[in-house]
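Good day; I would like, with your permission, to put a structural problem before you. What I wish to show you is a protein chain and, alongside it, a tokenised description of its three-dimensional fold. I would ask you to consider whether the tokens describe a fold that such a sequence might reasonably adopt. You will find the record immediately after this paragraph:
***
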Amino acid sequence: MKQRGFTLIELLVVIAIIGLLSSVVLASLNTARVKARNASYVSQIEEYQNALAIYYADHGRYPDVSTWACIGTGYENSSKLCWNGSYSETTSSSVALRTALSSYLSGSPIPGPAHLTYGPMYEDTSSGSEYNLILILEGDVDCPKGVKGGVYGSGTSQVTRCNVYGIGG
């Protein structure tokens, strides 16, 4: 009587197919995670835009900061930098922005990938009647808000800059 079973080749083919299918699933899952984080960043920027609109309605101008200010706190590097070594969440502009908007926000989330080199920024223009926001999204993606201002970094550190403009009145 002959024993029946799988040959080594058959087992290796099945293992290879399972490995291929699992890598496809994991790649799709990672893409979904990036999309979910980007949706969260856009939602948080919208919260800041709402706070800016209410601030404008109350004060007749947007918060006055002397230079670009970091939006949010908790950047994951030793100097708390939110933009490529140039801007910190501890600068007077960043602190002034947080102070001005503190009563209009439920918290101080980071609306952007804090683990990367670039983060979201705010600048008032035209004597407080207009503002610029920089929204940062993970990967090379289209901007759901504003105008695409460039792509920075490479690989898993790649981000898209979206320039979002606001005009009071």
Summary: The two ends are 91 Å apart (CA to CA). Helices lie at 8-59, 92-101. The chain has one domain: 8-167.
